[in-house]
């Protein structure tokens, strides 16, 4: 995939560092072009039934009535989550469009909180009688007289992902053409290319959230992902490479430098060709350098989940009870930022109706806070951070990451490589496993290299990184100024729910990580 690199070699006070990183964010995720035509809500073809112009419009009065039903048995809090999601997918294989589909999901989820208990019910129908029944079902978690909900007032959220036109409104032939362009570019890139597959996924999700605390807010969330996979063959050797990207865009995503179908195709072929000559990975404890951008997935999995407040509320996280304590190298500042324009994990409002900002999690190695939803924030007697997210109206919200990043340092990436006598350069990650309770992880690399005498040399195959997230964070000894974000490809799973996320980091040197390879010594 193509990763945008923004550099800033200054590192001043903590506030200057925050301001500098925010500027880097904006360069990586620019605001909409001047004069951009924004179309909200979606066209009538995909208009949510509960929209004000829809077939079953939901206004503040209807929401108030349903919330009153939800609280009639004495709940402390209730919310309504209306959702209408339309998605499309295209798969291109063997030079032809193999499949195309369009999917629709819609419904209402009702949540009632009473003390530490939660009642939840959902319905796939916007008939008032059906919605009222769902509210009555969720209300059964409480017993006794209830206070009425506060008057509901509309909230206008920020617009962090304006688009020219929803990709769903564009003819399917244009999306097929994108896939054809990728296929042709990959096959033309090298005669060793034996097989090419490409995919395109698009989604538009319209939500409405009403709460007993008086919030009434709507949002429309576009999402796009494009991917190419190429297989090359040379004699009896066969290797695959992939590239992809996306975010909260329309088709204007492909107009950005380095993000066209041909760019992703050539990158996929490059990876595959590099891996044809890969050698067996060394084994043992050694220095590891994480490349910028994609390596943020290690931070997300091995550290980020442990900073979600529900695990800490239950005492199952390695970070439980450590607010104010040193948990990482003083070089490390970690944030979760939902405000990045057009980033895959960005949201205007979370799924509890709150506007998220940037949550400071670790500052110069000190644990400052957790990512909070309403439930956990009440337990910790603090404010929610706007990290309450859910997969759909069928699911209850929980603390989830949005765009999680290790902020930039002051080291030159070239100097980081030069400082390594013998180690591994981790450029791209594949799958992995993490134990949230202690942060232990095992990650496989899809692209990694040997570092010898300060130079990146042979590509490696069969590389696994084994360690503990908190331990790795304490062993960060150099931090590059080249903060990057992965290009819109990651989806995070937790307790059966999946949500889109972003990850980011600069070049990072870790003094010691166990490398699981086959060559010892």
General description of the model:
With about 525 residues, the protein is an alpha+beta fold. It folds into two domains: about 10-275, PmbA/TldD fold, CATH 3.30.2290; about 280-520, no CATH class. The chain is about 20% helix and about 35% strand. The chain contains ten helices and 26 strands. The strands form five sheets. Strands 1, 2, 3, 4, 5, 6 and 7 form a seven-stranded mixed β-sheet that branches. Strand 17 and strand 18 form a beta hairpin. Helix 4 runs parallel beside helix 5. The model is unreliable at about 1-20 and about 20-40 (pLDDT under 50).
Gist of the model:
The protein folds into two domains: about 10-275, 2-Layer Sandwich (PmbA/TldD fold), CATH 3.30.2290.10; about 280-520, no CATH class.
Topology:
Blueprint: H1 14-28, H2 60-70, E1 77-93, E2 96-114, E3 117-123, H3 128-139, E4 153-155, H4 172-189, E5 193-211, E6 215-234, E7 237-247, H5 261-276, E8 279-280, E9 282-290, H6 296-304, H7 309-313, E10 334-337, E11 358-363, E12 366-367, H8 374-380, E13 388-389, E14 398-399, E15 403-406, H9 413-418, E16 422-434, E17 440-452, E18 455-461, E19 464-468, H10 469-474, E20 476-479, E21 484-485, E22 491-494, E23 497-500, E24 502-505, E25 508-516, E26 519-520
Parallel strand pairs: 4-6, 8-18, 9-16, 9-26, 15-24
Antiparallel strand pairs: 1-2, 1-5, 2-3, 5-6, 6-7, 9-25, 10-11, 10-15, 11-12, 13-14, 16-17, 17-18, 17-19, 19-25, 20-25, 21-24, 22-23
């Amino acid at each position: 995939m193509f990763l945008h690199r923004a550099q800033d070699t200054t590192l001043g006070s903590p506030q200057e560092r925050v301001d500098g990183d925010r500027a880097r964010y904006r360069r990586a995720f620019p605001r909409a072009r001047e004069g951009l035509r924004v179309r909200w809500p979606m066209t009538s073809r995909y208009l949510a039934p509960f929209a004000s112009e829809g077939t079953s419009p939901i206004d503040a009065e209807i929401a108030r009535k349903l919330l009153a039903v939800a609280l009639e048995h004495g709940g402390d809090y209730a919310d309504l989550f209306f959702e209408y999601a339309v998605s499309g997918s295209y798969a291109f294989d063997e030079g032809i469009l193999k499949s195309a589909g369009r999917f629709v999901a819609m419904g209402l989820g009702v949540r009632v909180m009473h003390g530490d208990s939660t009642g939840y019910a959902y319905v796939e129908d916007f008939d008032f009688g059906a919605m009222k029944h769902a509210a009555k079902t969720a209300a059964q978690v409480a017993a006794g007289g209830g206070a009425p909900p506060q008057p509901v007032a509309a909230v206008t959220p920020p617009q962090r992902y304006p688009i020219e036109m929803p990709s769903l409104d564009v003819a399917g032939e244009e999306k097929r053409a994108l896939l054809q362009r990728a296929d042709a570019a990959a096959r033309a890139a090298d005669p060793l290319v034996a097989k090419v597959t490409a995919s395109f996924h698009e989604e538009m999700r319209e939500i409405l959230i009403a709460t007993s605390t008086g919030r009434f807010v709507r949002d429309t969330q576009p999402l796009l992902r494009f991917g190419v996979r190429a297989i090359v063959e040379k004699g009896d050797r066969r290797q695959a490479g992939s590239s992809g990207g996306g975010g909260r865009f329309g088709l204007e995503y492909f107009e950005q430098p380095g993000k066209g179908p041909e760019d992703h195709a050539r990158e996929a072929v490059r990876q595959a060709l590099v891996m044809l000559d890969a050698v067996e990975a060394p084994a043992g404890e050694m220095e590891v350098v994480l490349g910028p951008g994609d390596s943020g997935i290690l931070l997300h999995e091995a550290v980020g989940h442990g900073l979600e407040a529900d695990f800490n509320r239950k005492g199952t996280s390695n970070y439980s009870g450590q607010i104010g304590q040193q948990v990482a190298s003083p070089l490390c500042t970690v944030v979760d930022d939902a405000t990045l324009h057009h980033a895959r994990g960005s949201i205007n409002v979370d799924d509890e109706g709150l506007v998220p900002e940037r949550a400071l999690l670790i500052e110069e190695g000190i644990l400052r806070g957790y990512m909070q939803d309403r439930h956990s924030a009440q337990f910790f007697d603090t404010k929610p951070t706007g990290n309450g997210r859910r997969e759909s109206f069928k699911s209850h919200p929980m603390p989830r990451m949005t765009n999680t990043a290790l902020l930039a340092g002051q080291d030159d990436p070239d100097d980081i490589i030069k400082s390594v006598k013998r180690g591994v350069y981790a450029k791209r990650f594949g799958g992995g496993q993490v134990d949230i309770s202690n942060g232990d992880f095992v990650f496989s690399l899809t692209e990694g290299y040997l570092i010898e005498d300060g130079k990146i040399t042979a590509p490696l195959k069969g590389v696994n990184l084994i360690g503990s997230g908190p331990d790795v964070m304490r062993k960060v000894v150099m931090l590059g100024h080249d903060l990057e974000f992965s290009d819109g490809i990651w989806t995070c799973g937790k307790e059966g729910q999946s949500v889109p996320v972003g990850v980011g980091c600069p070049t990072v040197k870790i003094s010691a990580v166990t490398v699981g390879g086959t060559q010892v010594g």
